[in-house]
Amino acid sequence: MPPLPGTMRCSLALLYISNITRRLSFASPTKTPKPSNPIIVNYLINNLGFSESQAHSRSSHFPSIKTLEKPTSVILFLTQIGFSHSQIRSCALASPQILLLNPEKNLKPKIDYFQDLGLSGHDLGNVFSKNPTLLTCSLSNKLVPAIEILKRVLKDDGSVENLARVLMRCSRGISGNIQRILNNVSHLESCGIVGSQLSLLVIRQPRILALQESELKTLVSKLFDMGFQVDSRMWWGGVGRPPFFMYSMEARMIPRYEVFKLLSSKGLSKKRQCFSTLLAMSEEEFMKKFVWRFGDDADELLAIYKGHMFNSPEK
Q: Contact, 186 vs 218, CB < 8 A?
């Protein structure tokens, strides 16, 4: 595949990434609930503010625990290094197995590693509370290799804040297949998405690292085939919007893109627009907001818009 045109590299990937990564959720077969542990139930309610239902479901992870020594030592350790009560609660709620870890053996090495990266106190607690899997996955086999990759990718935008932002939003990527991360980064670079464009893409959409390699290749291929030449600003707000593949490229996407491009070139589009919003508009609303309201330029905008529609094999 030839490299993607420079103006569509990072930005176009953002257009579909959320829609590609989402999966339909299907109800799993009904299972007999595991018995709860009364000791842990009371502890979670009284010390971490869990609701009764939350406490019962999480306590089933500890059926054989007879004392509160382990959870108490974990909570004390996290408190001493600066985690807030709400951050500890979020960690335990999402990954209750954290409460069974050995603070000195399992937690301290990870905390030390992240502190060496420049994260500490409340900021560190914020990262872990948003992505508790960081506390449970292997330091040497998962965290260190994944973060070294991130540090290389974020080289041009490698502030501690950006690293933290990626870590908070990329649980599957960081705790997943390290070779997949490497392969995905390599594929993006082979398509010309490098340097600051690659770092910005990962900062904005870290879930791209967790895509199956075949998915990523299909995604980039489709974007390339669309052939858009766009200013990346259009796409930043688009990755959580309606599924774009439901729209016709010829009858809807390209005509509306051409109108937007003309408005931008004439300086008529003062407000940053989200392209997904333009696509989701009804025909009447789009015409009103992006054609008729521009007075002397309306005829030219209409000609471009209708011209592309008439050239389309599908309406």
A: no
Q: Is residue 64 exposed (0-12), middle (13-18) or buried (19+ Cβ within 10 Å)?
A: exposed
What HEC string does the chain produce? CCCCCHHHHHHHHHHHHHHHHCCCCCCCCCCCCCCCCHHHHHHHHHHHCCCHHHHHHHHCCCCCCCCCHHHHHHHHHHHHCCCCHHHHHHHHHHCHHHHHCCHHHHHHHHHHHHHHHCCCHHHHHHHHHHCCHHHHCCHHHHHHHHHHHHHHHCHHHCCHHHHHHHHHHCHHHHHCCHHHHHHHHHHHHHCCCCHHHHHHHHHHCHHHHHCCHHHHHHHHHHHHHHCCCCCHHHHCCCCCCCCHHHCCHHHHHHHHHHHHHHHHHCCCCCCCCCHHHHHHCCHHHHHHHHCHHHHHHHHHHHHHHHHHHHCCCCC
pLDDT at 172: 66
CA distance 110 to 144: 9
Q: Are 88 and 49 in contact (CB under 8 A)?
A: no
Write down the pLDDT at residue 36: 82
| pLDDT tops 80 at residue 285 | yes
- Pick the range with the lowest mean pLDDT from 19-23, 171-175, 223-227: 19-23
Confidence at residue 31, expressed as pLDDT on a 0 to 100 scale = 54
Global confidence as pTM: 0.65
Cα dihedral 51, 53, 59, 61, rounded to 10, equals -130
pLDDT at 70 over 90: yes
Query: At residue 207, does pLDDT exceed 70?
Result: yes
Percentage of the chain beyond pLDDT 70 is: 75
pLDDT tens string 181-198: 999 999 988 888 888 888
